[in-house]
């Protein structure tokens, strides 16, 4: 099959790369609301690796069947993958494991980010395995003619030492036919663990070399259809993409 994306400029290819790294089938666990998940949080689910067919932008997901160690940075809990099944327990971070909340936590696509109180402390752990980073994501990508449409979801877990009100103003940036829009957000992180949910919706028309990408940030911890995925070290997730679109 002919690769219809062979003419795609680098900026569009970067978007497709970021969006395609998310996943499409069920797995993992979560609760409808993303705030106030408690001072101890247990996460579990089947773990997968993902492969991408760059000719069709199709994705294949292979269940992990073996055992893998899980490193949590900072070390705010314990976890492992046993027979392809993830079990993580996150506890209450120590003062040394937390720092003041930075606007960069929410990506760089928003203006006028305010954090109240501004001296609140937080921890945002990363999960890593010997095979790559471990993330919770979902993506649905379809191709019709020369147009690709994608909807991606990604969750990051954040601990705060008190209730924290955050807000940011959405922006629109356009360059060479590529429009990136972020929607304003306004919510309260509750003391304990919270789930930040990033929704990425986009379309690319290869014939006209134009793209529209919209990113929405909220508090939500959905279960299905998100799944735990190990990303290779060279892959981007949606959060990294949100921090690169304005660089």
N- to C-terminal distance = 34 Å
The average pLDDT value, as a whole number, equals 81
Q: What fraction of residues sit in β-strands? A: over 45%
Total strand segments: 20
SSE run: HEEEEEEEEEEEEEEEEEEEEH
Rg of Cα set = 18 Å
Q: How many structural domains can be distinguished in the coordinates?
A: 1
Oligomer: single chain
> Structural class given helices, strands, pairing?
mainly beta
Helix content: under 10%
Number of helices: 2
Shape: flat
Stretches where pLDDT falls below 50 for ≥5 residues? 1-32, 238-247
Tell me the major beta sheet: 17 strands, mixed
Outline the fold blueprint.
Blueprint (H helix, E strand, L loop, with lengths): L9 H11 L10 E3 L7 E13 L4 E6 L4 E2 L1 E3 L3 E6 L2 E6 L8 E2 L10 E6 L4 E3 L2 E4 L2 E13 L2 E14 L3 E6 L2 E4 L2 E5 L2 E5 L2 E14 L4 E12 L5 E5 L6 H7 L3
Parallel strand pairs: 2-20, 16-19
Antiparallel strand pairs: 1-19, 2-3, 2-7, 4-6, 5-11, 6-7, 8-10, 9-14, 10-13, 11-12, 12-13, 12-20, 13-18, 14-17, 15-16, 18-19
Q: Can you offer a commentary on this structure?
A:
There is one protein chain. The radius of gyration is 18 Å and the shape is flat. It has 247 residues and is mainly beta. The protein is built from two helices and 20 strands. Mean pLDDT is 81; it is low at 1-32 and 238-247. The chain has a 17-stranded mixed beta sheet that branches. A three-stranded antiparallel beta sheet has the order 9-14-17, with no helix packed on it. Strand 11 (126-129) and strand 12 (132-144) form a beta hairpin. It has helices spanning 10-20, 238-244; strands at residues 31-33, 41-53, 58-63, 68-69, 71-73, 77-82, 85-90, 99-100, 111-116, 121-123, 126-129, 132-144, 147-160, 164-169, 172-175, 178-182, 185-189, 192-205, 210-221, 227-231. The chain has one domain.
